[in-house]
Amino acid sequence: QGSELSGWAMGRWTYEGIDLNHNFADLNTALWDAEDNDLVPHEFPNHYIPIPEYYTFANATVAPETRAVIDWMQRYPFVLSANLHGGELVVTYPFDMTRTYWKAQELTPTADDGVFRWLATVYATSNLAMASEERRLCHYDDFMRFGNIINGANWHTVPGSMNDFSYLHTNCFEITVELSCDKFPHVSELPTEWENNRESLLLYMEQVHRGIKGVVQDSDTGQGIANAVISVDGINHDIRT
Q: Pfam families, per this entry (predicted)?
């Protein structure tokens, strides 16, 4: 059909008919309900939010690929991630789901909005295609006006996204990179796509060295303390060692 003529939904669903992009557990709603009832964080956690029981049932509509990725995330303490999409030139950051459930678009920042905006900007400003002054619009949205980054929910709501799940269930900060106008680039275009994204990928990975690093130790024994909760004043989202 041609690289820019295929529909956005082509190839999106698995053999079982599941959209993996919306298949993670919705932890946002539980958090926001608890916040509205002033239960966070003394009665309801602001991080490491547990997966709802219904999601773990054998008959739940959860793809085996999704279950495998969640198991992978629970075994390894990732702190930085990105998932790569095609069809646009923009970097999106959480939250992906609108807080007002009936709204298709709504600015819905996380407690770590400044960090996420930085991470998205690092990728967008070093991506050759996004940073080009000669670039054209992919479709209808002019993301260049916003530095080629946008809050995911302010673009279009995505309940059950991997970005939101990573942030709320693990220590991992994750963004989405829409890395090409073409959802299905021709083979001949792949070297150019690689050059457009190579430096961005490297710079993005280097961001793991930002922030505070160290080991939380018992002051008497010097032993490391596993799963110590670290809180930062003014940020209602803790992390764990």
A: Peptidase_M14
pLDDT at 111: 98
**Domain span including residue 64:** 20-213
Closest C-alpha to 169, from 69, 48, 2, 9: 48
Catalytic site residue 178? Answer: yes
Q: Rounded to whole angstroms, how far apart are CA atoms 202 and 91?
A: 15
Give the global pTM: 0.94
Structure tokens at 202: 């490297």
* Residue with the two structure tokens 């992978």: 72
Distance CA 68, CA 213 (A): 29
Q: 178, 189, 195, 206: which one is catalytic?
A: 178
Q: Is residue 197 part of a domain?
A: yes
The total of structural domains in the chain comes to 1
Residue 47 domain flag = yes
pLDDT in tens, 218-239: 999 999 999 999 999 999 999 9
Say whether the peptide bond before residue 41 is cis (omega within 30 degrees of 0): yes
Rounded Cα gap, residues 132 and 53, in angstroms: 47
